[in-house]
Write a structure and sequence with these properties.
heterodimer; A: mainly alpha; Alpha-Beta Plaits; two-stranded antiparallel ribbon; 5 helices; 33% helix; B: mainly alpha; 9 helices
Chain lengths: 184, 193
């Protein structure tokens, strides 16, 4: 008999707690912004701030709330196309200065002119510049996203953006533009 | 009033849960490598411990004791603690994003902190009343926080110290914890009965 009571009591307590948690999970449900999360996943995560927002996540949230989709310079045409697909809007050309020339670029430091001031290192969002105080700096081309944030801080203008030559290594097949339709 | 104050001081310093009773050693060693995380863990533990000791007192004295089911305390208390932790996490997540960012990852960890179950069971064995239970729970948590934050501060210093190779890492942390425990034993002379 006492065993039965014990089982019953624990059962009742567990049920009450379960009900409480169930109630709480409904009552205190946190509604995240799934659209902003998805947009954030599409952005290049360079956190360069060229869009006017302090990083990719804030820009994703702004786009979810109706900001223009064409402000991501490092992402380029490709990212805009993806965002447009997700948002269900028209593809727009890239905004601002990057509109005219949108080919992929990397920064290049003219090493004879570099005075080793480290200002570009501090500006680089992806840590693609190596060097130290009063030593010549250089850019790791593979890491550089071409965001050109290092160009402005350089006091001797020794950084230039050079276009990436198309090689067999980085040639991108634009497979999406080939119209593939299923024939019934 | 003096009794309560004595109980609080006694729990925080004299019968410190970590260094004298050796409860909750897992988070003590686990999250003490950075002061920031130690502080987050401290706040979360304080909150949960106080609430859990209160709730387990209520459950024990109004449900289990009248029915003569004291042998179920351990099981029921684990249930209570798990629910308190889960519930707290949900409420904090909903109400304060900042607090959630601070405590978020630590809250689920507390479920398995033996100090929380320890405080509930010790309340029972020492036959504390309602207020004593709350103060005991709070005091135990404050003691845990105090020791955890001090220990993490020491470990941050140790990270830069020139420790002999065989003692590097966990070994020197264990020795430090042992020395801290010895030091806390000194508080035994604080309260004269």
């Amino acid at each position: 008999m006492s065993t039965l009571i014990a089982i019953l009591v624990v059962g009742v307590i567990a049920t009450l707690f379960g009900a409480l948690l169930g109630f709480a999970s409904v009552q205190f449900k946190v509604i995240g912004d799934p659209l902003a999360e998805q947009l954030d996943a599409l952005l290049p995560q360079t956190q360069c701030g060229q869009c006017g927002y302090p990083g990719c996540k804030p820009y994703a949230e702004a786009v979810a709330n109706g900001e223009a989709i064409n402000k991501c310079a490092p992402g380029g045409e490709d990212t805009i196309k993806k965002i447009a697909d997700l948002m269900g809007v028209e593809v727009q050309p890239l905004d601002g200065n990057h509109e005219t020339d949108n080919s992929p670029k990397v920064a290049f430091i003219i090493e004879e002119d570099c005075i080793g001031c480290t200002k570009c290192i501090q500006a680089c969002p992806v840590d693609a510049i190596i060097g130290t105080t009063k030593q010549m700096h250089t850019i790791i081309a593979d890491e550089c996203t071409g965001c050109d944030l290092c160009v402005a801080p350089c006091p001797v203008d020794c950084i230039e953006m050079i276009p990436v030559a198309t090689t067999t290594q980085n040639w991108q097949w634009d497979l999406n533009s080939i119209p593939v339709t299923q024939i019934d | 009033m003096t009794d309560y104050l004595l109980l609080l001081v006694g729990t925080v310093l004299v019968n410190n849960f970590v260094l004298v009773k050796f409860l909750g050693l897992c988070p003590f060693m686990g999250v003490s490598s950075k002061t920031e995380t130690a502080i987050g863990m401290s706040f979360a533990t304080t909150f949960v411990m106080t609430l859990a000791s209160l709730l387990s007192y209520i459950v024990n004295s109004y449900v289990l004791a009248p029915l003569g089911l004291e042998y179920l305390t351990t099981m029921t208390f684990i249930l209570v603690i798990a629910v308190v932790v889960q519930f707290t996490e949900m409420v904090v997540h909903k109400t304060s994003a900042n607090l959630y960012r601070l405590l978020g990852i630590f809250l689920p960890l507390i479920t398995t902190n033996c100090a929380v179950l320890g405080v509930a069971l010790l309340n029972l064995y020492e036959q504390h009343n309602f207020f004593e239970s709350i103060i005991y729970g709070f005091g135990a948590a404050v003691g845990f926080s105090l020791v955890l934050i001090m220990f993490s501060a020491m470990r941050e210093k140790l990270a830069n110290a020139d420790v002999p190779t065989p003692f590097k890492g966990s070994a020197i942390a264990m020795i430090t914890a042992g020395l801290m425990s010895l030091a806390f034993m000194g508080f035994t002379g604080l309260v004269k009965f």
